[in-house]
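Please fill in the sequence for the structure shown.

STRUCTURE ENCODING:
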């Protein structure tokens, strides 16, 4: 029921996203639909707009709160944000919180107390920042939720992310194609790994993939042998590789030790996929299953090249940073930030006007073009 609703609401958003990709295009030659979106956005962000009425002369100090250095992508996000903000003339206060919610709260409090003029926050647990967000609002400091939505707070001016639902549908559609689910007899055995329950994105990844795959589960063509299907059961705290690995170890020992074939593992991202791959390497002797992922982390890209991961989703963090810097710039100059979605991301206190960048399918056939030719990685990074 909940998923169906998500799917209905999100299909509208997907159309909106298809109209406008990530990058400067939306800001420079926005279609009519976008103009409406921006106006609507203004209506939902009165308070935030009020907080941004004073333009900063000659830059200003921007607080950037990142969740952890332990997962590869946030290092890239932080580095890109810092470099691009500096290039745009801002002073940057970049903090990583070791995936510890209290540390992140303290870091944001310090940013507020130290005179940061705008906050960009990639939350650890989107539901645990309510109080500190209220402090930011009280101090008139606008907040941009970065990649992950901050929940139940009216202090969030904007949200910039990749189209999280589309990430999930791309993973689900890949599985349909890879196993030829519409033609093959099956049944195929599948296991499911998603992300941290405190990360709103995880619901969208899981929801997008399950909206594609549920019908094959219902038909009995996909069989989740462990019976572990619902979001709470397949969630992985902190998106932690070791946690995913030990859950996969248990599943293999309990359900596949009899020689049953594991055909596919739906993994919402690369850190969970890596845990699954490590576990399979240690204790699975059957044919290697189809495995999905997201982020094109270096370890996983190497595994794609080696045939141990079937696909990933490339989310160019440079593009997201560019988008967020243009949002920062617009807000700091007293204007409204560019958005292309004003429907999808309700954080419990209202819909947060968002900019969704487009996630890109990646596998061993196109990784060179996506990752190396674009300068994201060097050949040496992937050796
Ligand atoms: C991001 C993913 C990432 C995951 C773990 C999510 O919020 O959107 O790209 O894989 O966090 O870091």
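FILLED IN BY: designer on duty
SEQUENCE:
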């Amino acid at each position: 029921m909940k998923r169906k609703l998500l799917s209905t609401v999100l299909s509208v958003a997907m159309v909106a996203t298809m109209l406008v990709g990530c990058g400067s295009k939306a800001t420079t030659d926005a279609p009519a639909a976008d103009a409406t979106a921006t106006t609507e956005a203004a209506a939902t962000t009165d308070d935030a707009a009020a907080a941004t009425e004073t333009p900063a002369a000659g830059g200003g100090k921007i607080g950037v709160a990142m969740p952890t250095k332990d997962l590869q992508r946030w290092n890239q996000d932080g580095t890109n944000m810092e470099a691009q903000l500096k290039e745009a003339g801002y002073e940057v206060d970049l903090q990583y919180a070791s995936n510890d919610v209290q540390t992140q709260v303290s870091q944001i409090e310090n940013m507020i107390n130290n005179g940061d003029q705008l906050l960009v926050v990639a939350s650890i647990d989107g539901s645990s920042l309510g109080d500190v967000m209220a402090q930011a609002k009280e101090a008139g400091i606008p907040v941009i939720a970065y990649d992950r939505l901050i929940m139940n707070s009216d202090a969030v001016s904007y949200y910039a992310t990749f189209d999280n639902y589309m990430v999930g549908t791309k993973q689900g559609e890949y599985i349909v194609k890879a196993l030829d689910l519409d033609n093959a007899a099956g049944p195929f055995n599948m296991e499911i790994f998603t992300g941290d329950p405190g990360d709103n994105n995880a619901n969208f990844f899981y929801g997008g993939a399950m909206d594609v795959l549920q019908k094959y589960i219902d038909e009995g063509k996909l069989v989740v042998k462990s019976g572990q299907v619902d979001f709470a059961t397949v969630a992985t705290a902190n998106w932690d590789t070791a946690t995913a690995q030990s859950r996969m170890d248990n599943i293999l020992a309990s359900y596949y030790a009899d020689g049953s074939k594991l055909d596919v593992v739906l993994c919402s991202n690369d850190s969970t996929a890596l845990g699954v791959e490590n576990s399979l390497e240690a204790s699975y002797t059957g044919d290697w299953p189809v495995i999905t992922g997201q982020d094109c982390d270096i370890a996983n890209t190497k595994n794609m090249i080696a045939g141990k991961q079937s696909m990933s989703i490339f989310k160019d963090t440079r593009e997201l940073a560019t988008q967020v810097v243009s949002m920062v710039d617009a807000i700091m100059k007293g204007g409204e930030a560019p958005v292309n979605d004003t429907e999808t991301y309700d954080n419990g206190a209202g819909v947060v006007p968002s900019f969704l960048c487009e996630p890109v399918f990646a596998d061993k056939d196109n990784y060179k073009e996506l990752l190396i030719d674009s300068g994201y990685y060097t050949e040496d990074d992937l050796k």
